[in-house]
Amino acid sequence: MDVDTPVASGTRYMREVNTAAVLTELRRCTGTSVTELARATGLSRQAVTRSISGLEEGGLVELLAPQRPGRRTGRPPQVVRFRAEAGHVLGLALTPEELRVVAADLGGTVVAEETAPLTGTDGAHLARTLTATVTATLDSAGLTPDQVWHACLGAPGIVDRHTQQIRFTASMPHIAGDLLLRTLGSCLPCPVHLDNDVKLATEGERRRAGHDRHEGPMVLVQWGERVGAGIVVFDRLYRGASNDAGDLGFLDLCVEDPGTGQADADAQGLGAFEAWVGTTRLTSLVRETAERRGDHTLARSLQEGDRGMDTAAEALHRGDPAATEALEEITRRFAKGLGAVRALLDPEVVVIGGPMARCGEHLLTALNAHLQQQRLDPPRLELAALEEDAIVRGALHHALAEVERGALALPPTARLFS
Amino acid sequence: MDVDTPVASGTRYMREVNTAAVLTELRRCTGTSVTELARATGLSRQAVTRSISGLEEGGLVELLAPQRPGRRTGRPPQVVRFRAEAGHVLGLALTPEELRVVAADLGGTVVAEETAPLTGTDGAHLARTLTATVTATLDSAGLTPDQVWHACLGAPGIVDRHTQQIRFTASMPHIAGDLLLRTLGSCLPCPVHLDNDVKLATEGERRRAGHDRHEGPMVLVQWGERVGAGIVVFDRLYRGASNDAGDLGFLDLCVEDPGTGQADADAQGLGAFEAWVGTTRLTSLVRETAERRGDHTLARSLQEGDRGMDTAAEALHRGDPAATEALEEITRRFAKGLGAVRALLDPEVVVIGGPMARCGEHLLTALNAHLQQQRLDPPRLELAALEEDAIVRGALHHALAEVERGALALPPTARLFS
DNA sequence: CACAATTAGTTCCGTACAGTACATAACTAA
DNA sequence: TTAGTTATGTACTGTACGGAACTAATTGTG
Questions:
Q1: How many angstroms separate the CA of A78 from the C1' of D29?
Q2: How far is the CA of A49 from the C1' of C12 (A)?
Q3: Domain span at B72
Q4: Is B156 part of a structural domain of the chain?
Q5: DSSP string spanning B200-247?
Q6: Where residue A198 sits, what CATH number does that domain have?
Q7: CB neighbours (10 Å) of residue A2?
Q8: Hey, which of A23, A119, A414, B3 has its CA 20 to 30 A from B393?
Q9: Are A185 and A299 part of one and the same domain?
Q10: Would A300 be classed as within a structural domain?
Q11: Reading across the β-sheet that carries B98-105, which strands appear in turn?
Q12: Which residues of chain B neighbour A346 with C-beta distances below 8 Å?
């Protein structure tokens, strides 16, 4: 992907660049006047007007009747509005339990949303559900397939960056290959992009309110039975050489407590770190601590894995001493992992997501206390806000970014419509 | 650093874009004809000619008399040459032992080089040496200070990105603050940039032959008494939120061997990992092993720290069993650190530099063997090629990049001095 | 109700840049 | 000497921008 230097072959190039600038500014604050846009972009009023007329012909922009002026004197400005409804994108999230489809306009406003429960591992059935849910979403938003400009689907497993084939999925073996791509391709005439769910969740979480204008490097840790992380640097999702960056679960720093059952972990394909701090380990810890303290009720009520998390989190929230003690231990361990993240990546903020985030502020407090003990200044910690929606939001975001890059002329690739 | 969208306010913008394109192409292969440039850039011949005349006025380019043609027919082309000598940059590297100053032209060709030995921690003396060495370098190249367009100095310690103040330097306490900046500012009328030595060494190593067109993520580990790393992702040096990314030395995963003398390490400002795998530790290991094996000659000949490294490396190269055994142990430890790098960053290649690199291929072989034991596919390992020159090359490189970005006022997408 | 004041948008013109087409220059080989 | 080939130079056209001047719409005031 080498970027060859841009060339201005013809004055038309200027129009493209300027149209892009105007559109970017217009999207930043829609509903401004021509004069205001001129001031903001640094262009002359005429240049802005010319760009606006081009955009108007393309349907991306419309001029509204002069509004009631807030000013006391002068001719009221003609208000220019970005027509977010000019195009739409689809974001999809696939998990073993359900399929989620969200349609949004070019402004990112969600206009329709459908969820279908999933069971079994029948590829053909999944394909039918996918087609039906996409169609239902479009119908519910009153859209035809050709009004969708881009679609992006997040699925578990490793997605090949180039061929878009799904290479490996432990939890959903039937989606390997190009099943999803083919199915979506047959019901949508627009480009379709497949990506890893954790990666998209990172994008989604990053763009939530508050992080929207965030510039610094960020790490989003998905902390559940497994532990993985998405890394955002230079305002982009970093994937690593083999699309495996942020594989926190395979950190090897837990040499204490060697009786963790490395063999078990290996059998399940778990890494050393996730076996040591994952939710399975937390529930075990809570159970052991509770037994030791004689609280057999709590010990018995704990199921395995992520489901047991809810029970543990509940116990924690009501101040149960066994749960608190277990959290203390698990956060001590996790803080060592965060120490490695800090040392190598030095992120500005670490966002904790996944089932473990249900422990809430307790988690942050305990982690912060442990991080204070370390010799490097720790990053800021935050809790993830989106939970289930993260993947679908990230998918929407990716789709919108693709539209921006391709259809809406953005600076380097300055082109207006195809 | 928010990049506001470029705007073409005035047709001059096109000229700038096209001039940048021409200059980029010209730098890629200097000594081509106008027609060839037109073909390469996609511009018309006239556009190229116009850009060339502008560059010629600025002195950045010159037209050579028609050469003896290689072709058999046709009018010989007018050859255009990039005048690398039109401007110069200075790269400086400061270590506790010496100061190195290199002057290069805009093509990156070194035109003068001076080295001054350093001792003690007297700020005023250092300042005098700095001024004298810079002056000597300029004299030896026949340059006046105003012919230098940019200077960049690499020094140990944390450099504040914005104020350019050196905040902390264990090995050179007297350079804290703005001493270096003030001194350089008073003898050079051009912009001066200060940066961390490891970061600059990374840039230097990255641009060496072979890596020049390298696209993938890369980590350069400086392995000496201290251990630090530079990280290159998205083809850029990654610094982290507090300019401290890649601080491998402070990794905390060496819970075995707790008698390492953490107190000592703390006193010297060393991190846990570097105390565990640094060259000081290696020489101790070699000494202990040699003693145990009864080789008192080798044990006695080992000095402390980086100087002892030479003796150790020598012993290793002649196949000394004690040195080999010590290397085996130290690489086992280091491989754990590389495991963390792999898990979090997933680099395509890890380059090993610093004094430890003197162990040569032995080092790579031992490390690779240990990495094979880990559960994630290891990155490729390479030895650094530049050694001492890395910092100064990186500094030169940074200076050239700054010239490209600032002095020539070119669009950020254009890369002239890659 | 006319008219100044104010702010917004539009028209016209000059300048600058790139591309196309054609003319000219330089050189080789027959 | 002449034809062929390649590179350069010049004239002309189309498009885009900015500035000045002009028109439009609204409010307040005598």
A1: 27
A2: 16
A3: 12-82
A4: yes
A5: HHHHHHHTSTTTTT--S-EEEEEESSSEEEEEEETTEEE--TTS-TT-
A6: 3.30.420.40
A7: 7
A8: B3
A9: no
A10: yes
A11: B110-117, B98-105, B88-94, B148-155, B192-196
A12: 239-247
